[in-house]
């Protein structure tokens, strides 16, 4: 690795973000938090300069750093966050503040491209269960695996099981409106979170009230679900929980065509049958994941179901699902594909393997109503494969609704002569998102926009984006919260990245 002074960042700090009176700011933060919870150590700055976005990861593998915060803090109480935000907001010039969970985001959401204060939420780790209401009040720094294990130990199920369960927090789930593997039964974050506490960029603490339902004007707290750290720091959420399921069972089927499998699942969900897990793998992914597991999968698409709940309900849901699958040309398989799915569901070896060899690789999850689902799949695969240098585009459908479906595409490629890694990467992304938006789909289903996708915010929201920007201005007049994400367009974010010819700018503030 290069020497400290020579380390290079890939995102220039905005000159306004350089903290001239750094020593004064540090001593103020130490006064608020105590000396041990404030760091400007070199190693911490490097560690908090990236998330799990393929680009920030690749830069790190290349010995570069994508960005770095000026200061890292570990608050323990909500009022401390309030004081930090009040101070950062009133400082001249205002100081950027970035909330941080565990950095498992895959779109650059936590990458501190403007420097500033990184607020690690790990100490917000309390969990309180109300068994009568079937709710849990949870600090947003709680790790997903810790949370689910705690629920199991107490006889409950939270049911939010993202593939990144071991390495992500509740705050990150709220910020990206995440979706777990079992979301068919337990819902996505917007279904799970019933109320929350948030510290606004100006330092006010706002807590929404928990109730089963109400008709008391607009639901204000919803604006913070999916706000990606740009509107405030969420400190606590009250969530719906469930009894630990009496029974869990799985089934799998192979189908001759994607449309057949979509029809079977659409009819099942529209009949209000809710398997916890549903996955359709296209033919290439069926070969990749199940080729050696299930002989019947040859030239077919594999579909996996997992059901959870009371024993009688699980049996009934399985029966109706099976009827729909058989009706639409599905053929029942052995238990092996479901077992295999359980064994490999947290395996992300592929993405770790490819990066070091310079192979461009990523995943793109989008959503689309049923009536365009098959078309969308075809369009996105074709759009990606038409990019010079792209070698592979495959997909599976991973989340379902009575109204539509989420497709999760995987692409890879090798840059051609005169094409660099980033160029090919961005062209593949553009192709996937273009294919989706042209068909009327949403640019992201659950990973969020972050740095990578912020360039599609205007196109995605249309007129609504103006309203969103007004809300941002009102809540965060000095744009201190996670600047460069969600609300930036051409001047910042990933477009800024694509416009650069060099990836090795020197840091202006110095490390
Ligand atoms: C291998 C792998 C598998 C994945 N599988 C899934 C999956 O199945 N489903 C899914 O939805 N996602 C998945 N993800 C993406 C990622 O795990 C989620 O986006 C997760 O929600 C991020 O959580 P985090 O705590 O790591 O957040 P971070 O990466 O630390 O931050 C993400 C964003 O949230 C903001 N933020 C964090 N905490 C707060 C807070 N308290 N208040 C306000 N803003 C905050 C940050 O500023 C940033 O913008 C996967 C990622 C990986 C690497």
Automatic annotation (TrEMBL):
Q: Which residues form the FAD-binding PCMH-type domain?
A: 65-244
Please name the InterPro entries in this protein's record.
Answer: Alkyl-DHAP_Synthase, FAD-bd_oxidored_4_C, FAD-bd_PCMH, FAD-bd_PCMH-like_sf, FAD-bd_PCMH_sub1, FAD-bd_PCMH_sub2, FAD-linked_Oxase-like_C, Oxid_FAD_bind_N
Q: Does the keyword Nucleotide-binding apply?
A: no
According to the UniProt entry, its GO molecular function terms are: D-lactate dehydrogenase activity
**Under which EC number(s) is this enzyme classified?**
1.1.99.6
Domain of life of the organism encoding this protein: Archaea
**Keywords associated with the record:** FAD, Flavoprotein, Oxidoreductase
Among its keywords, does the record have Zinc?
no
Q: Which Gene3D superfamilies match?
A: 3.30.300.330, 3.30.465.10, 3.30.70.3450, Uridine Diphospho-n-acetylenolpyruvylglucosamine Reductase, domain 2, Vanillyl-alcohol Oxidase, Chain A, domain 4
Which family does the UniProt entry place this protein in?
Answer: Belongs to the FAD-binding oxidoreductase/transferase type 4 family.
Family matches, as PANTHER family: ALKYLDIHYDROXYACETONEPHOSPHATE SYNTHASE, PEROXISOMAL
Q: What is this protein called?
A: D-lactate dehydrogenase (Acceptor)
Q: Which organism is it from?
A: Candidatus Lokiarchaeum ossiferum
